[in-house]
Specification:
By secondary structure, the protein is an alpha+beta fold. 54% of the residues lie in helices and 11% in strands. A hairpin with a 4-residue loop joins β2 and β3.
Amino acid sequence: MEKFNAIKLTEPDEKESLDIMPFEDFIAEIEEKIFELDEKTDRGENHSDFLDNFVKERKKIIDTITDKKRKNLAAGLFGAHEILIKDAVERENGARSEALKIMDAEWQQEIIHFIGGNPPREELEAFWAEYDALFDYYGKPEAARGEKLKSGILGTLAVEKFLKSRGFDVHYPTAEADVRDMVDLLAYDEKNKNNFLIQIKVRNKKVKEMAQNGGALDIYEDIPYFDFEKEEIAKVFGEEHFKTANAEIKEGNDYDKFKAGCFRYVKENQKYFNQAGQKGYRTNGMYLHAPYSAKGKRLIDIDGEPSEDFASILIIAGKVEQKLGIANNK
């Protein structure tokens, strides 16, 4: 990918052209605007200020798009570039703020909504090719970061589709709840009157290998080797166990933090859980390890569709259907 000469950002017919131009031209135009905006925005020495300015300017561009699918797609591609700026912010500040984590969660949900809109296969291929190119342009560590984020997005979609195919009604929490409470998905089983608050850990060996080769393994040390044949893939616990976790927990493993998150989420959404339609429902937490690849083969398609092997790992090795209480459903 090569940078280009800057052009005028706002043309009189830009709103119309971004909505109706051929899809491949639209992708190329968004790429051009991303790098143009990167050059146009004063970076200075403060990456945080640069990020704020970049976000304000890209919003003006995205607001010119009226087509909902294209708007989500443009937001996703701009967001991929912002991820790279955020890395610089982390290095500058020494730690990621909650606000930055929430921005990440919002960005991932925008991409999920785009993919969930069932765009044509060729549009998905064009999107992921551009996504990869944006991260690859900045080197191996950034390419590994992009692959990690991609596996998280597709892994979450695969779990959503797995659950929906088994009769669950699935929703996404707010980005704030995703970050603070570690709740990635909300799944409701009307037949058996069960709610599940789900945290998903997508295990991707390829990311670790990419990070190792790129000299950025320290960034991805939260992706340990996971043996799907021997380790517990899914842990389920009832609401009575939410309170065993300290709701203000600061340290500890992610599993304990998730218990605390479930406690907070239910407490802060009592209005929903106490409504008439929820009478008799049991609320549970599920901490789920989802496979992304195995034996060199990706188990999730670019549209988030899980393969038969993905489902087999969850059903046979993870006993997920039993733990969801649906093993005997027909």
